[in-house]
Amino acid sequence: MALNRDQFAAWDKKDPLAPFREEFLLPPGVIYLDGNSLGALPEKTPERMREIIEREWGRDLIRSWNTNDWIRYPRRVGDKIASLIGADAGEVVAADSTSVNLFKLLGAALQMRPDRLVILSEQENFPTDLYMAQGLINFLGKGYRLRLVGHSEIAGAIDEEVAVVTATHTNFRSGRLHDMGKLTRAAHDRGALMLWDLSHSAGAMPVHLNRHQVDLAVGCGYKFLNGGPGAPAFLFVARRHQDVISPPLSGWMGHEAPFAFDTDYRPAAGIERQLCGTPSVLAMAALEVGVDMLARADISRLREKSQRLGDLFLQLAEEQCGEFPLTPACPPDSNERGSQVSLRHSEGHAIMHALIARGVIGDFRAPDIIRFGLTPLYLRYVDVWDAVVALREILESETWRRPEFQKRQTVT
Ligand SMILES: *Cc1c(COP(=O)(O)O)cnc(C)c1O
Question: Pairing mode, if any, of strands 369-373 and 193-197?
Fold first, then answer.
């Protein structure tokens, strides 16, 4: 049976997550389908920013490291993120960027398997993950190699040369999910370590790092965690590995006694040794607001709604846009899909431009994918309806052919 907008409005009325939308400052007239690239602004963030700038920085000045506990920000926010990803307190810190954290943990993993020289990953992995691995092995020399295979071949490509397998849980283009338990077991069966990138999963769905005995993980703070542009990222090291790692970036914040100002580096116990330099305090405060909000949401419910939004988006796209050369680039089964849908069209870039001009903000991923992030905390069912209707109108009227939509921008 064909869908109609009233049904979507009725689902919004019954949606237990609907009140969260009021906690975001969303511009009127915009349907925001890019929360997987940059999460929306929580209402509390500007207030918290003003407070930390004017009171904690302006008035309390350097005393704030102690009196406002700035020094423990990486641990405090890390512990909160831990509860979203199935880790324990003391296994996660918020720090640096995802790229830098990858470098730190890949370096650590190679040290932990000294007789193995291969980092195994997948061709379709997010580029920075691959670039960081390439930079690390060039830097190390000594025969280290990056081996890349297709998404479904990765488990079969693990052998006794592989020190660490690194994969992104939700693929950024297709939204395809890896089976975290299965791939982690496959790595362990062959003596390799497993490093997951949770950038597109943390805050979007339940993740069970410890249930699956994951060794290492990294993830992003500005996507589903709504931490703000360039928010600190996070990293996870399973407790059993924490004290054997010698951090390749051995900064003073990871020192056993940073304020002893010793000449020699001695790593702190536990997860703290993964820290490097001074935390970005203002950015941490913004990230904390986003994470606190997620902690109040039922993450299984979030996942359920996101799966439903995705299924409806795909069904509606087929109903409304079936006559156009638009094909799904994501798994049809929502259990195999992260919190996004992707569609393929040879003119995807121009189509996305035209959509954005109409206030429907998704993004484009080369060469031909238009991508719609589904953020169940602040997205309504009617938004999905309205977005697909806008897409159909753009395809029908061919407004994407206009010259202003043909130009490429620096950031897509
Ligand atoms: C977004 C994302 C990153 C971003 O890395 P930065 O260092 O924050 O630029 C890395 N990996 C994956 C898989 C991502 O989705």
Answer: unpaired
Residues in a beta bridge with 119: 146, 164
Closest CA to 169 of 141, 203, 131: 203
Residue 403: pLDDT above 90? yes
Q: How far is the CA of 361 from the centre of ligand 1 (A)?
A: 20
CA atoms within 13 A of residue 31's CA, in its CB half-sphere: 22
- How far apart CA 55 and CA 282 sit, in angstroms, is 12
In sequence order, what are the residues at sequence separation of 6 or more whose Cβ sits closer than 8 angstroms to the Cβ of residue 334? Answer: 307, 308, 310, 311
What percent of the chain is predicted at pLDDT more than 70? Answer: 100
Distances in whole angstroms, Cα of residue 258 to Cα of each of 57, 229, 271: 22, 29, 15
pLDDT above 90 (res 1):
no
Q: How far away, in angstroms, is 99 Cα from ligand 1 center? A: 6
Per DSSP bridges, beta strands 193-197 and 162-168 are: parallel
pLDDT for the residue 411: 83
Q: What is the pLDDT of residues 53-104, one digit of tens each?
A: 999 999 999 999 999 999 999 999 999 999 999 999 999 999 999 999 999 9
CB distance 126 to ligand 1 below 6 Å: yes
pLDDT at 2 over 90: no
Alpha carbon 289 to chain centroid distance? 17
How many Å apart are CA 40 and CA 377, to the nearest integer? 10
**Higher pLDDT among residues 247 and 410, named by residue:** 247
Alpha helices in 217-361 (DSSP H): 281-296, 299-321, 348-357
Positions marked active-site: 126, 197, 222-223, 371
C-beta of 200 in contact with ligand 1 (< 6 A): yes
Listed residue (241, 260, 203) closest to 105, CA to CA: 241
